[in-house]
Design a protein that fits this description.
Blueprint lengths: L4 H6 L3 E3 L11 H4 L11 E3 L2 H4 L4 H7 L6 E6 L4 H11 L4 E7 L8 H4 L25 E4 L10 H6 L3 E4 L10 H6 L14 E2 L2 H9 L3 E3 L3 H15 L3 E12 L14 H4 L4 E2 L8 H12 L6 E6 L6 E9 L5 H11 L6 E3 L17 E8 L4 E8 L3 H16 L14
Helix pairs in contact: 5-14, 9-14, 10-12
Length: 412
């Protein structure tokens, strides 16, 4: 009797693990236990308990119904780019077929970031759209602000779906770019309408989009913290004060004096006070939710840590609710969204508890003495605030389960 792959799995078969970039036919090894892998040709035993937890994606791939989706990453050596590669390497449904780096073209990713030695050997390419293989399904643009504007239209013209991690397509009012970013910031109208890539708010639109503008890190932490209250019209916007702290990786990989080690370590400081470029993005999206013009006070701070954002938001509610009703409102708003965790007292968000993950932890407290509601959120700025959220958007755009490749927990 001929044994099918599924029958072999149920029987506890052993499959060899080989490099996925060269041996697509042994994709089975990439699909076990959320992408569990071992060294080349080391066997991994498949047990029925694992089979029962297979996602729809893995089941289709096992049957050969779907091919691996081919993904390009432009700007693969910056912090958001390399975080994208890290997450995509473990994604069971995709294959990296093009990596670009203007600063390191000709080298391999492992030569630039040694954690990838022996894992990803393809050379880094110069940023030329015509070099991207024609069978690419989706391209991530992890380029500096202002650079994506000149590249994204060409990617769309070639038929690729695009997720842009820069700010170049986030703001609906083009005049805001020159006011908040730079007087010389390029303003380019995309061939298609970009969708703002916050999955908990715009999941259906993202699934059908060709161009997604991935949100900024601070806006992600703030919008997710305020969205339920904004949607219900419960916020007195004149009272909103947003105090956010971020790790140094948020400044990018290019060396800058302000982010030099002696300037940052054992130090804590505010920066771009009353002028941070994420302010109009926060106001735009909260105004969309609230159905009214929104103005907030936003002050970012640089903390002596590598990654993470903790936002503490103070506001006066328009209507008095007890804390239990606030929690019920937030739980209902985010019902079914696995990456949002509403913490009950006495728990409070901490950056270490979301490090390297796509989670956003949110807690609410009432100060009855002042009448203020205090909302605290924590995310990893490189994962949920950039690359993890981009992978979440990719999953929606390519038909994967929304959490595929993102089911991970932080270490200690």
């Amino acid at each position: 009797m001929k044994r099918t792959p599924n029958a072999a799995v149920e029987a506890g078969a052993v499959f060899p693990v080989r490099r996925p970039s060269r041996f697509k036919t042994v994709i089975m090894s990439r699909l076990i236990a959320n992408g569990l892998r071992g060294p080349a040709c080391r066997p991994i035993k498949v047990v029925p308990r694992v089979l029962s937890s297979f996602s729809r994606t893995r089941a289709f791939l096992l049957k050969g119904v779907l091919r691996l989706k081919k993904i390009a990453v432009l700007g693969a050596t910056g912090y958001t780019g390399v975080e994208l590669v890290r997450l995509l390497y473990y994604h069971p449904g995709v294959e990296l077929n093009f990596l670009s780096s203007e600063s390191s073209a000709g080298l391999t990713l492992g030569q630039v970031h040694p954690q990838f030695l022996g894992l990803l050997e393809q050379p880094l390419q110069p940023l030329k759209v015509e070099l991207i293989p024609g069978d690419t399904d989706l391209a991530f643009c992890a380029l500096p602000h202002g650079s994506s504007a000149g590249v994204v239209p060409s990617l769309l013209e070639r038929g690729f779906k695009v997720i842009d991690l820069s700010a170049d397509f986030r703001l609906r009012d083009p005049a805001l770019y020159r006011e908040w970013y730079s007087p010389s910031h390029p303003v380019v109208k995309a061939p298609v309408e970009p969708v703002y890539g916050l999955p908990e708010l715009y999941g259906d639109a993202i699934a059908g989009a060709r161009l997604v503008a991935n949100p900024g890190c601070f806006p992600t932490s703030v919008i997710l913290a305020l969205a339920p209250a904004a949607r219900e019209g419960l916020i007195d916007w004149d009272s909103v004060i947003i105090d956010s702290k971020t790790g140094v990786s948020g400044a990018g990989r290019t060396p800058k004096q302000d982010f030099h080690f002696p300037e940052c370590t054992e130090n804590f400081k505010a920066y771009r006070v009353a002028g941070h470029q994420h302010t109009p993005e926060i106001e735009q999206e909260l105004g969309q939710l609230a159905g009214e013009a929104v103005t907030v006070t936003f002050t970012p701070h640089l903390a002596p840590m590598i990654r993470g954002i903790l936002s503490t938001i103070y506001l006066r509610p328009r209507r008095e609710l007890d804390l239990e009703r606030w929690h019920a409102l937030y739980r209902e708003f985010y019902r079914g969204h696995r990456f949002i965790r509403i913490l009950e007292p006495p728990l409070l968000p901490e950056t270490r508890l979301v490090r390297g993950t796509n989670y956003c932890d949110i807690a609410l407290r009432q100060d009855k003495r002042t009448g203020r509601l205090i909302i605290i959120s924590a995310i990893d700025n490189l994962t949920r605030g950039a690359s993890g959220q981009a992978v979440q958007n990719m999953n929606l755009m390519l038909g994967f389960p929304e959490d595929e490749g993102l089911r991970c927990l932080p270490g200690i």
